Structure formats: structure tokens, C-alpha cells
Amino acid sequence: MRIGYLLNTYPQPSVTFIRREIHALERQGLHIHRFAMRSDRSVLVDAGDLAEYDQTELVLKAGGLRLLRDLAHLTLRRPSAVARALRLAWRLGGRQPGMRLKHLIYLAEAAYVARRADALALDHIHAHFGTNPAAVAMLVRVLGGPGFSFTVHGPEEFDQPKALALGEKIAASRFAVAISSHGRSQLSRWADGADWPRLQVVHCGIDPLRFAEPAPMPDGPLHLVNIGRFVEQKGQLLLPQAVAMARAGGADLHLTLVGDGPMRAAIEAAIRDHDVADHVTLTGWQDEAGVRAILDTAHGLVLPSFAEGLPMVAMEAMAAGRIVLGTWIAGNPELILPGQTGWLVPAGDAAALARAMQDIAATPAPRLREMGQAARTRVLQRHDINQQAARLATLFEGAINR
Asked: Which intervals of the chain form a coiled coil (predicted)?
């Protein structure tokens, strides 16, 4: 099978899970051609991302004239298809103020991808995220390109499902993927009941070979790590307050924040305001090896998120034999089992986070190691990327043979 993968920005540090999915599909014999609207090589630090950049066809890098030529070519060859696609782009763009021009650009991008898909003899297009990649994939199909599917991750797509026309995209797709049962339930809200059979759950996955021999959980005072973008939905702004409260309650702990983003200045201010500068470290973005090295020094991961899909970083921490302190949201309870593989607390509650940190600090080391091993066993059973890619490949085969 020859599959086109379609993304907005790829590669980038926050979507290494897509890279793993692609590689797992290729190991199973599928040919994957990567399309991305854009990417910024200057921000890539991981060797795997740099290698992936060289294999990715950047649509906008072709230039506006090339995209317009491809649209003109299709207009001459398939005028009725282009007319239908133009009407679709205009209608989709009308769902959000100021988005009609963007959707006309999506139409030009779709013309480029449709012609390239024909030249590459692609059997199917799979888009990641229900935003503009899924819109472009749908337009490619209307223009006469191959059938498409798409993966919805959340939480962004669930913030504006009507504006993104998720129901219409699902109806036009061969199938739509959610990464958790919670995600499928949200898609069911916006899909027609007749389209529910199109909704599939395929988990994001981890490569067991990368976690073949987890480092022993360290001795000493509690060390927790947070890994991710510094954005409002991730809730890191609560962490300095929670650390201060936990320490006031007698917990001896240190927190390391790995990542960066628009909330960094506010987080740094909170660290100063709560007087925990000696107990919180900010490392900036790290490559995969750097993240793994920091995780190896920690007892567990803390994710104070307000909104999530199903966090990959939690899977990676569990595969490394670490407990996870997360929040009762989205797909988290499908992965994190309180008292068995970690702790769950209400989102937005700094006091609850602090109490959980105190509980973790007071838990005997042998019990933490036992929970870490249970976490590893659970994630390897549920999120082996090779098993999930095999499921996705079966869905591709069924879609192509329809």
C-alpha cells in the first residue's frame, strides 16, 4: 500500500509520536510519503526529526505559482470537480470569521497534493489532526484524488467542532481515528449516528525497543518531571504553587520542567512569587535522549493538564517504569490507574496536586518501584506502536478495497 501522510507542520518536536507511527507502518511494508504544509528546520534538535525533515515534501515550499498552476491544470481537466471543491472550500471557510481566504489557500494546496498523489500512485491519504490537514485531504478527494482518513487528537479540535466541520469531515472520510475512547465519544457527538461505524480507536504508541531496560528508580528525595509545551491547557502555571504547598506540608521534592512556550514568563514569575526557585528547574526543549536522561533521574511525571487528548509523555514515562500524577480529564483515566500506576487529581486544583505530591513523597521506595513496574506493564500492553500500526494498516487496507 502507498499512503500519503498529510500534516500541517511536520516534523516538529511536539509530534514525534507521528514519526514513530510512520516508521512502524514502514516496518510493516507500507510505503509512506510525507506531505506537510510547512516545517522549520532551525527549531529541530533531535536527529530523528532532522532525518524526517529530509524525507518530507513541504507543500508551501513549492511556491504559490506552482500551487496555482496545479489548480489551473485541474480546472482544465476536471472543471466540475474543481467547481465542487471551490463550493466546499467557500462553505467550510464561512464557518469561521475571516477563514474563507484560508480555505481558498487550502484548495490550492489540495490541488498540489492531488497532482502529486496521482504522480506517486498513492492509494490513500491519511491526515493527522482534524484541522486544516483534514480539510485539505477532503478537498483532495473532491478534486479526484484518493480517499482519505484522519486522526483527531484533541483537545483543540473539540474546542470548535462545528467551526471545523468535524461531522462533515467524518461523513466524507473512509474512516476517522480517535486516540482514546474518550476521543471517540466526543467525535460521536458531532457525527451523524449513521457515521458512527467510521469512528475507530487507534492509540498513539511507544516503541518498546526504546524502553527495553528502564533505569532503576532513583533513591533520595522526590523528583518529579513535567514535559511539554508551556501553554495554558497544560496547566504548568499551577506547579510552582503546588510545590510550595507540598513543601510547606513536609514533602522534600524537586520539580524539573522540560519544554518551552508562551507561558514561560508567567511560570517563571510564579516560581519567584512562591519562592521555589531552589526547588524548580527549567531546562528548555531537549532532544529525545535528553528527555530520557532527565526522566531516568526522576521518580515520576506530573501532568497538571486542563485539557488533553491522551498524552504521549505519560506513555513514555510509564514505559520507563515511572509513576504518573495526572488529572481526571479526557483519556487520562484510560491510562493512569489511581493507586496502581499513579495518582489522579481534579484539574485546576493546586491543593490537590500538593496533597498528591506529599502522598508520593511519603510512599515507600519499594512501593513506588512496584507501581512504576505496573505502569510499564500496562502501557506496553496497550500502546505498543507496532500493534497500533498494524491496526491502522488493516484500516487502510479496508478503506482502499472499499
From this structure: none
